Amino acid sequence: MTLTNKKAIFFDLDHTLWDFEKNSALAFEHILAKNGIGIEAPLFIAHHTPINQNYWKKYRDGLITQQQLRYGRLKDVFDILEYEVTDEVINTLSEEYVATLPLNNYLYEGAIEILEYLKPRYSLHIITNGFHTVQEDKLKNANIHHYFETITNSENAGCKKPHPDIFEYAIKAAGVDKCDSIMIGDCIEADVQGALDCGMDAIFFNEHKAEAPAGMLQVHHLLELKKLL
Known about the structure:
This protein is of the alpha/beta class. It contains nine helices and six strands. Strands 3-2-1-4-5-6 form a six-stranded parallel β-sheet, sandwiched between helices. It starts with 7 loop residues before the first strand and ends in a 10-residue tail after the last strand.
């Protein structure tokens, strides 16, 4: 199957192009050591990863605020590890984590190559639930900002994936039609089903080869997109 009739490609950023887990681990190694936290970084990260995913789901669903996300995902780790820490320290770590995260610039294998391949053929765009300043810094520091014509985030759209309005906002900003567009992302609920429900085609970036609904278009490596686009 090929999708060469498409004109515009919309990418998610974290966990799709930008290697969130690797960059996040580096950020935690730095801030835990800097603040004298007596927890080994790998242990902290092992607990933080699923907790962070759960908090992001709550944030997507509108159940918590940005501040509750940033505080709660750290507080829960310290609670599980029974490590006493003040709210002041948690807030400091939260601020330093957000500031440090975009300073690490690891991309997924094949990210630059696939962007170079796609750029002459399609208009490229970003749709992300991440926060505006942080996502802009990630794109610029990783030197991939110039590949994208528009960057839609949940703050400027006023809603989060999988809400159809964020896809509508992105399509309008890009000046394209849904039938000419396709979304690529790592989250079935937010990226793939969100786009499909809005009337766009979508590709699931299934890095970990997780179970996916039958018939869902997917790739396990970014360079596999060359076979489809």
